[in-house]
Each structure stands twice: as structure tokens, then as C-alpha cells.
Design brief:
The chain is an alpha/beta fold and 888 residues long.
């Protein structure tokens, strides 16, 4: 029985598709299966069932259904395309390539298939074919961000890095706020030796939201951005592995020389080395890879900055000489022990490295090939971290291996051994950073495609360590490695390279006592977990309000740890509705999936939820925030507060599983010890659920009050920001205003950016705003500030701020800058204007009033007090903001 001749079957099919689209896979699968019993040759149903099965993890069954569908409709390119996607996600690259090639044989202009084909070729390390596929896409659509990135990736892997940079330069013009392109561009700028241009681009490294990206460490202080450092206490922290920590460490001296008191956080294995190398700093032991929790024993810190960001402010290279010093007694011990082993130069070697399998495959030299370097002319010593005696013997039986040295747990003996050597020959791993920082002669063996830090030349002196030379493969093959090892033998044969840097071979004497090392004390006093920390999230306004709250909580607690929003969006089970709140089964599932969250709650006295604009509707994030708050109270009996937030449950009849939204919110709010909302409309909503709700205000003004004592100098410019609910109509409205303002002599600036995880809506807004301005021939500046202070300056120096952002409007109001604000995804903008006592008719931009934007701007730009808030009322708003923490 065929669907096209039976209305009831067609209606069932439409119901199944609707179930599929809303995520009811069980319901959809049941209907698809019944339809196939009636018509086993229904290719569309087979296709949808195959797609569903594959998404459920039943890949083989899914592919079988898709294959049957393709046999029935061989000219439908979507079926082999879907098969390719399923196979590619499963890592079956050869089969995925075959599927995509079938697609483009049917439809030569199937852009998505060419894009995925390029990525599959790249993962197969067939870079030439990957480049050809990307170029196919660019011939159809020169603005495709996936193809631009794919082409750049393949060109980089082929060693054609100047061409990769050209591709990325073009891509950034089309997509100026796309983090993937900006961060890749920074790597290629550095690889091409253009460091001054690269450092600002490197600040995009945390803006991406990819699953494979390393999340930024949460550090609860304002970012230093070149402000006068004299007399300030600045926390410098690491991001990556110990190799990066060593490479960037000398830049700390720039802050020391500028008069800052530096608190230098590092891996505990580096404590002694850094304490000796930087005696004018205070060395902080790293206790947590994900964050630096605040505690009351810490000095009062004014700013923080990642060591990786310091080159943005100091000349490169700051110090290329040796700056680390091993313990002299241990160095002499290893020197004697090596002399006793055998005669000849002592050469340390390492052959393997890389954080993941793909990188290890590119960097590492196979043991049977690397062993060809070892000969009887010298004593060779394994410096390979993680290597067993058997692995060292597989490289060469005569290779010395000291099992008592394990640099993964203790570096002191490792650096002493390296210091006792005459030279080091190694692939790219942390060993070369230690050798270079110790001043040991080092030869680095690079693949064709190496990390940006080593440039793109065939050979040369490292830009980071003056004792480190590098040579590069000519082609990516085993023979390429053999040729490189032959060059290494010639390098070692030149005995002049093995002469020590100092005539007597001894380290220079220390001029100062080593720095003090501090560590986290045993818990004392009350502690809090700040849940939903937005310091590294969305846009700079979120960073400011989260830091304002964090600073306020310090007056109430002795220790504060955080749980950033990205953690909640990474694998936490989502409640299905009100029944989940007290369900033992769901609690057990959550506990098993998120043991880190359970441990964090257990360890503290109070859980504080920073709700901001997240508590609205029935999406995964509000359901999770509210569930954890409820769980912390009911299951752990903690003090629990939801603060600094707007509350908009939405339509109370909207179903969430078997319970309604209002029921879910009501049960959670009734359990809280404290709820503080930011504006009156939210107070009315939250008061329906619980009696103990206070009307506070957003914490951003508290951050501004503490860190901005002097008013900005106004400039004749209009600043535009985005919106969570921007639309083409809003962009055209803003662009029309910009055109008028530019004709009147105002500069035009688009203000965007974030400390991390840039809002996806912001990426699209910036791109479309730039295009709209270019279409109107309006000159403009794109401003992506690197810090909270720079973002506040961008707003504080404006003549008018125009956006759809809650925090942009607050930052303008509290710096006495007039603003226009478009409506958002909830009524919080209307609530904000009511709290500020500004007439919505004067500064609001509802969708139906976009055409009035120029007239509204004229009125605000005339001067006077139009659109400004009285200072006394601003002071009252700051008092209310303190209610977020004053009663905890």
C-alpha cells in the first residue's frame, strides 16, 4: 500500500516527521517501521529511518536502510550524502570519501559534499586532494567559511603557509568575527614571521565553541591590558603544557621591570625552577587545571593575564638566553654518572611527542628509524618522557635509560640530567623547551608541517631560545625522516656545536634569594560555589557582571570556586520536567554523569547561581541551573541562592515533559534560601512562585564603580553592538543610522568580542553589519577589545551606544552615555528601562519603530540630559545590586 494513494498513511508519515524533528525518536521510529511493513519500497521512509537509526548509534542498521533507499532512488544525492556524514562521524574515512564522491557524481555543485570531502581527505592526510575539494567549493561560493578553513588547513599541512595566510586574509574579510578563521590566521602570521600582527589575533583562541577546544581557565580578576603596572599586583597564569609555560615565562620580566608585583602561577613541577628564575615574583602553585579559585589568603590582585598574552605588550623576543637553572648538586651527580657510563659527548634524545594521536603521528619519528641516529661516537641518553626501558631499547640497545627519572611527576632530576648533557637532539615536545631555557645546545627535528612557533623555514635558529637550532623535513615520509637524521649526524659531528656556553661549564651564581612559593591553604571559614559563572562567556558585559558578583561574594566568604556555563553544556543530563526534580533515578543518572559537579557541591557551604539572562523558558540551560540549585538544597542541604538574574518562564502552559514550566519554576523557587532579580517585571514573575524574592539589580555597575574611577573622554562616534535576537531589519535600521551619523561627521564603530566563547549571534550580526555598512559606503572600525576595561572604554567614549544588549545599555547608562536599545528575546529590556526610569519611547527600539531610529538618535545627540539617568538614582541601583550577596 503506497502513501501517495492513501491519505491516512500520508498523515501518519507527516506525524512521524514532526516527531523526528522535535526529538521524539521513539515515536518517529515506531511510525516509520509500521509504514515500511505496508510499503517496504518507500525510499523516503527508509531514508528517514536510516538517518534516525544512525543518530541513535545503530550505525549498521542505519546504513543498511540508507543503502536500500539509495538502490530505490539512485539519483537522489541526499542519500549518499547522509551516508557520508554517518561514516565520517564514525571515523570510517575511506567509506565516507566514497559516499561523497557518489554525491558529487550526481550533483557537481553539491557544496556540502565537497566541504565534507575536503575534511575527510585532510583527516586521511591526503592534503592535495583535500585542497582540490576545497577549491571546488570556493569556485562555487568564494565565501564558504568551511572551504576557506579547509583550504588553509591543507595548504598549511603541505608547507605552503604563505598561501594559507592569503586564503585566511580573504576569509577574515568575509567573516570578520569568525573565531576559527581568526585563530588560524594568527598561527599562519607567526609561521610567516609576522609576530606583531599575530599576537592580537591570538587573543581569539578562546572565542571558539568547538567540542575539541580546550576551555579557558577561569580566573576571577579583570584582564590586564597594558594599563600602568607600577604598584599593581598582577596574576600571571599558564594555559597549556609545561613547554608553553617555559616558552612564555621570560615575558613576565616585562611586568617586573614595569614595577608590578607579579604573582606567577605555574605547574607545581616548575615551582623551584621558576622561584630561582624569577626571584622578584611570588610563585603560586597550580592547584586546579580548570580554574584559579579565590581564597582570602591571596594578596589583593588588581589584574590577571595569561602568560600567552604577554607578548602582545612586550617586544619579541624579550629574552632568548638561558634563564632556568638546575640544581648544581644534582647536575654534578648526573655529570659524574654519565662520565662513568662511557666516553665521548653526552647526547640526550627524544623521538615522540604530541597531545593527541594525529599530532603525535606528524611530529614523532618511528623508533626503528630514530635508532639510526645512535652510534658509538657518543653516549646517547633517553630524555623521552613516558618511555619504558623496553621502548628505549627498541630505539637502540645502547641507548641509556634512567627509569628513576620521570618528568611527568618530577622535573628537578630531569632538568639536572639535561644540564649535564653536551647536546640534545629531539622532535618537538617539552624537552626542547627545557633544553633551550637551560642553554643546552639543541637540534630540533621538525616535520614538514610544524607548529606555528617554529616558523616555516627549512632550518635556522629558534626565535625563542638562542641555543636551539632546527632543521625540517623536505617531504613527509619515512625517507624524509631518514634524510633529516643524516643532517643531525653531521650537526653532531661538528664538535664546535657541543662546546659549553661558559668557559668553565658552570652555571652563573644566583644574585637573589629564590621567590616565595604559595599554595592554597586548608579550608577555613565559609566557602561558596558560583554556578553559572559568565566571566568567560558570550560577550564582555557578561564578564563584567560576573566579576562584579564575584568581588561582592568575597565580602561574605573565605573561599569561592566556580562552575562556568560551558561545563553545564558539556554532557550534563537535562531534566525532562518537574518530575525530574525529586526523581531518585534522575539524581543517580546526574551523579554518574557529572561527578565533578557533585564533588564541587559537596565541598562548599553555599551554592550561588548567577542567573543573568539564562533563567527563561524551558531550554536545557535554565532547566539545568534550576535543577542543580534544587538538588543542592534538597539533596545536600546547602544554602542556595539564585541571584543577579531575570526571570521569564514564558508561557506557563508550555509542556516540559509531563510537567509545565510554571510548575518546574515554582518548585525550585519555593526551595531557595534567596532569590534576587534584576528588574521589576522579573520580580512579578518570580513572586508567583515564592515569597522570598528581592528586587536587586545587575552587578555590572559594582564592577564599574570599583575599576573605573575616572570618566572617559567623549568622542564624536557612534558605537553599535549586537543582539541575541538580531534580524536583517534591525541591521538595516542600525546601518541607516550609521549612514546618517557618518554624513554628520561621526565616526562609526562596531563593538564586539568576548573573553571566551563568543556569542554565536554576535558572529552573524557583525558580519551582516559590516556588509550593510559597506553597501552604504560607510567607513567604520571593527573593535574587538581584549579586556573588560577596553570594552567599558569603548562604550564610555561614545556619543551614543546603539544595541540590543542588556549589558551594553547598563554600561552606557552608568557612564552617562545616551543609548538606544532594540527589544530582546524576553521583556528584560523593558524591565531595565523601567528600573532606570528612562522612557521607552525615548530610547527603545521595538521592531515596529525601526524607521524612527534617526529621529530618536538626533534627540539624544542634541545634548542635555535626554536619555541620561540621575546620579542619585544610579547610586540607588548600585545599592540594590549589593542585595545579590549582602544577606548571604
Amino acid at each position: 500500500m503506497r502513501r501517495d494513494s492513501n491519505q491516512a498513511l500520508q498523515e501518519s508519515f507527516l506525524v512521524a516527521k514532526e516527531c523526528h524533528q522535535r526529538g521524539d525518536l521513539v515515536g518517529a521510529e515506531a511510525i516509520y517501521s509500521r509504514l515500511l511493513v505496508l510499503d517496504p519500497a518507500d525510499s523516503e521512509v527508509l531514508y528517514l529511518l536510516g538517518y534516525l537509526k544512525a543518530n541513535k548509534g545503530e550505525m549498521d542498521v542505519g546504513l543498511e536502510c540508507l543503502s536500500l533507499a539509495r538502490q530505490l532512488t539512485p539519483d537522489n544525492p541526499q542519500i549518499p550524502y547522509t551516508m557520508g556524514v554517518v561514516l565520517q562521524e564514525a571515523g570510517k574515512l575511506a567509506e565516507a570519501v566514497d559516499a561523497y564522491q557518489k554525491v558529487v557524481a550526481i550533483d557537481r555543485r553539491h557544496v556540502a559534499a565537497w566541504e565534507n570531502l575536503s575534511a575527510a581527505f585532510y583527516d586521511q592526510e591526503d592534503y592535495a586532494s583535500g585542497l582540490a575539494a576545497a577549491e571546488k567549493v570556493l569556485a562555487f561560493n568564494r565565501e564558504s567559511p568551511l572551504a576557506i578553513r579547509a583550504a588553509a588547513n591543507c595548504l598549511t599541512a603541505l608547507g605552503r603557509r604563505a598561501e594559507a595566510l592569503e586564503v585566511l586574509d580573504t576569509g577574515v574579510k568575509y567573516h570578520p568575527a569568525l573565531p576559527d578563521l581568526r585563530i588560524h590566521r594568527s598561527w599562519e602570521l607567526m609561521a610567516n614571521g609576522r609576530f606583531a600582527e599575530a599576537w592580537p589575533e591570538l587573543e581569539w583562541r578562546h572565542a571558539r565553541r568547538g567540542r575539541a577546544d580546550t576551555p579557558p581557565r577561569s580566573v576571577p580578576y579583570p584582564r590586564w591590558n597594558g594599563e600602568p603596572a607600577a604598584g599593581k599586583t598582577i596574576l600571571i597564569y599558564g594555559e597549556q603544557g609545561v613547554g608553553d609555560e617555559i616558552m612564555y615565562a621570560p615575558y613576565v620580566l616585562g611586568l617586573v621591570r614595569a614595577g608590578a608585583r607579579c604573582v606567577f602561577e605555574c605547574d607545581r613541577r616548575l615551582e623551584r625552577l621558576f622561584a630561582q628564575a624569577f626571584p622578584d615574583c611570588l610563585i603560586m602553585r597550580r592547584e586546579n587545571r580548570d580554574q584559579i579559585p579565590w581564597h582570602s589568603r591571596l594578596p589583593e590582585i588588581d589584574y590577571c593575564i595569561s602568560a600567552m598574552s604577554l607578548p602582545l605588550y612586550f617586544s619579541h623576543p624579550l629574552n632568548r638566553g638561558s634563564f632556568l637553572q638546575a640544581d648544581s648538586g644534582r647536575t654534578e651527580y648526573w655529570r659524574r654518572r654519565l662520565q662513568e657510563s662511557s666516553a665521548g659527548p653526552k647526547i640526550g634524545v627524544s623521538w615522540r611527542g604530541g597531545a593527541n594521536a594525529k599530532v603525535r603521528g606528524i611530529r614523532s619519528i618511528p623508533e626503528h628509524i630514530f635508532g639510526e641516529l645512535i652510534d658509538a661516537k657518543a653516549t646517547y641518553v633517553s630524555l623521552q618522557y613516558g618511555a619504558s626501558r623496553a621502548e628505549a631499547a627498541a630505539v637502540a640497545p645502547e641507548l641509556l635509560h634512567f627509569s628513576e627519572i620521570d618528568p611527568l611527576t618530577d622535573l628537578d632530576d630531569f632538568v639536572a640530567l639535561v644540564s649535564a648533557l653536551d647536546a640534545v637532539v629531539s622532535i618537538d615536545n617539552s624537552t626542547v623547551h627545557f633544553a633551550g631555557a637551560l642553554g643546552v645546545r639543541t637540534l630540533l627535528l621538525l616535520p614538514v608541517y610544524s607548529e606555528w612557533r617554529w616558523g616555516n623555514q627549512p632550518s635556522g635558529i629558534s626565535p625563542w631560545y638562542e641555543s636551539l637550532e632546527f632543521i625540517r623535513q623536505k617531504d613527509a615520509s619515512e625517507q624524509g625522516w631518514r634524510d633529516l637524521l643524516e643532517e643531525a649526524r653531521l650537526w653532531l659531528a661538528d664538535n664546535s656545536r657541543l662546546e659549553p656556553e661558559t668557559s668553565d661549564g658552570e652555571m652563573p651564581a644566583l644574585q637573589k634569594e629564590p621567590a616565595e612559593v604559595i599554595s592554597k591553604p586548608i579550608k577555613e571559614g565559609r566557602s561558596a560555589l558560583l554556578l553559572g559563572d559568565t566571566n568567560y562567556w558570550y560577550h564582555w558585559g557578561c564578564s563584567c557582571t560576573s566579576l562584579g558578583l564575584h568581588e561582592g561574594l568575597r565580602s561574605r566568604f573565605e573561599e569561592i570556586s566556580v562552575l562556568p556555563l560551558p561545563r553545564l553544556l558539556s554532557g550534563c543530563p537535562v531534566p525532562s520536567g518537574v518530575e525530574s526534580l525529586d526523581s531518585d533515578d534522575f539524581f543517580r543518572q546526574f551523579s554518574q554523569s557529572c561527578p565533578d559537579i557533585m564533588s564541587a557541591i559537596t565541598a562548599v557551604d553555599c551554592v550561588v547561581v548567577n542567573g543573568e539572562g539564562s533563567i527563561h523558558g524551558a531550554g536545557p540551560l535554565p532547566l539545568l541551573l534550576l535543577y542543580i540549585a534544587y538538588m543542592a538544597k534538597r539533596r545536600f542541604n546547602k544554602q542556595v541562592a539564585v541571584v543577579n538574574h531575570s526571570c521569564y518562564p514564558g508561557d506557563a502552559s508550555t509542556p516540559v515533559g509531563v510537567g509545565g514550566v510554571s510548575d518546574y519554576y515554582a518548585r525550585v523557587y519555593s526551595a531557595l534560601d534567596l532569590a534576587v532579580v534584576r528588574e521589576g517585571l522579573s520580580l512579578a514573575n518570580a513572586s508567583l512562585f515564592a515569597g522570598k524574592v528581592s528586587l536587586g539589580f545587575d552587578c555590572l555597575p559594582l564592577f564599574l564603580e570599583k575599576h573605573r574611577q575616572q570618566a572617559c573622554v567623549r568622542q564624536r562616534k557612534l558605537v553599535f553592538g549586537g543582539s541575541v535576537s538580531w534580524s536583517p531589519a534591525m541591521v538595516n535600521c542600525f546601518a541607516d543610522l550609521a549612514k546618517w551619523a557618518a554624513d554628520e561627521g561621526y565616526a562609526i564603530e562596531i563593538l564586539s568580542g568576548a573573553k571566551a566563547f563568543l556569542a554565536s549571534d554576535e558572529i552573524g550580526f557583525v558580519e551582516q553589519m559590516v556588509r550593510a555598512l559597506e553597501a552604504r559606503k560607510v567607513a567604520h572600525v571593527l573593535h574587538f577589545p581584549p579586556s573588560e576595561m577596553a570594552w567599558l572604554d569603548g562604550i564610555g567614549t561614545a556619543a551614543l551606544v546603539v544595541s540590543g544588549r542588556f549589558h551594553y545599555s547598563i554600561a552606557a547608562a552608568f557612564q552617562q552615555v545616551p543609548f538606544l536599545v532594540a527589544e530582546s528575546n524576553t521583556l528584560k529590556i523593558a524591565g531595565l528601562l523601567s528600573e532606570l526610569e528612562i522612557e521607552s519611547a525615548l530610547v527603545g527600539l521595538p521592531r515596529e519603530q525601526y524607521r524612527s531610529v534617526v529621529e530618536k538618535a538626533k534627540q539624544l545627540l542634541l545634548g542635555g540630559s535626554a536619555g541620561l539617568v540621575e546620579p542619585e538614582h544610579l547610586a540607588e541601583m548600585r545599592r540594590r545590586a549589593r542585595l545579590n550577596f549582602s544577606s548571604l
